[in-house]
Design goal:
Shape: elongated
Strand content: 25-35%
Mean pLDDT: 80
Strand order of the largest sheet: 2-9-8-5
CATH architecture of one domain: Sandwich
Helix content: 10-25%
CATH topology of one domain: Immunoglobulin-like
Structural class: alpha+beta
Number of helices: 2
Order of helices and strands: HHEEEEEEEEE
Distance between the termini: 101 Å
């Protein structure tokens, strides 16, 4: 019979702990500081914004962007493309652009991968 009492007593204490202290009041929270709009908006620019190149010439476009607070990237979170497709030349993941052999006006697009819809466009005139 002693074994039953030993097992029941810890179980009873676990279910109903002794109430020797007064109940703890609910915590109160101060309102969070407002986030300034300039801190919450993610932006992107491309340099140069416009350039003239000879057919087949190469150049490098560079993204300029801000990062979310407390976030660091090993490589800027961007993807590159040519708006006119293959006819407008090629651009790699580092922004290295090769102009097409055909003259014309083309557009290199850089888009953030961490913020949908944030993009910048550079104009390339091939002549």
């Amino acid at each position: 019979m002693k074994r039953v009492l030993i097992l029941v007593l810890p179980l009873a204490l676990a279910c109903h702990p002794p109430q020797t202290a007064a109940p703890t009041p609910a915590p109160t929270f101060a309102p969070a500081a407002p986030v300034m709009e300039s801190e919450s908006l993610l932006w992107l620019r491309v340099e140069p914004t416009a350039i003239q190149l000879a057919p087949g010439a190469k150049t490098v476009f560079r993204p300029s962007l801000n990062y979310p607070k407390g976030v660091n990237y090993l490589r800027p979170p961007v993807k590159w493309s040519v708006q006119e497709g293959d006819a407008g030349g090629t651009v790699d993941i580092m922004g290295r652009y090769t102009a097409p052999s055909a003259t014309g006006t083309y557009h290199v697009v850089v888009e953030r991968t961490d913020a949908k819809g944030v993009r910048a466009i550079a104009t390339v005139t091939v002549q």
